[in-house]
Structure prediction request, 310 residues.
Amino acid sequence: MSTIDGTTAGPSSGTGPRGVPNLKGRSRPAERVIVAGLIASAGLSVVITIAILVALVEPVIEFFRQVSVSEFFATEGRFAVIPLVTGTLTVTLIALLVAVPIGLGAAMYLSEYASKRTRKVLKPTVELLAGIPSVVYGFFALFFVTPRLLQDLLNMQVNFTNLLSAGLILGVMIIPTIASLAEDALTAVPQALRQGSYAMGANRMQTTLRVVLPAAISGVAAAIVLGMSRAIGETMIVALAAGAQKNMTLDIREGAQTMTGFIAQTAGGENPVGSVEYNMLFAVGLLLFVITLVINLISITLVRRYRQEY
Prediction:
């Protein structure tokens, strides 16, 4: 009498334990093409990043041959970059104060409270904001938010171009980024955690804030940092609504130039190629690249540190 042991099926049988097909050692042409395509895509992104750095380095070196580092990292002067950094960070902070509460609120509602039918309507509507051209947001800030909302409705004494208006609209623009990514992170939390919380007597709000949100904190943090990076790199909104004058100020009612606004203005063709002013464009661009890189590295560190696997 012979016996059958399903756990000892070898490669010749083509099956593993419990009848699962043994695909070890097999290679399909289509899979090799897909893997090669993925490797090529990853490699291309690295090549493009290196190419950007190479394109920036030579003009930056030429710039610092004529301008000292102390003149560049100064608060006043023709080549001072600190006012641009201050304007950029101020606008970004205002944008985050708008986008983070609204974006997380929208994400928690879509993930934990909305019905499937409601989510099917609201999520594409929120993401539609990301498809609006930034120049439209800029003109909206310039001709509606400042004169109608801030000056008329709220009776605030703000300049025609100001940091507050630019920050508010920039915050609206990055809401879809934060809301969509945070909602994906919240939805990925296992249902068993929610059921365990309900079994302990917690209501839906307590479960959302004390169980689901902490469990998805790595994804939520990544969403916020990505939104921050998007805000720092935005050009048209700040170029139109924040102003085009260097201004070392923390008064959000006044206008001030940001790093991307300076780049847009300098690249407009008014400065001859090879001039000091033109080369400063690349120095500011390299500094912006470094700031964005640092933010992304912080995001990766946070995600790895607080990531939870289920």
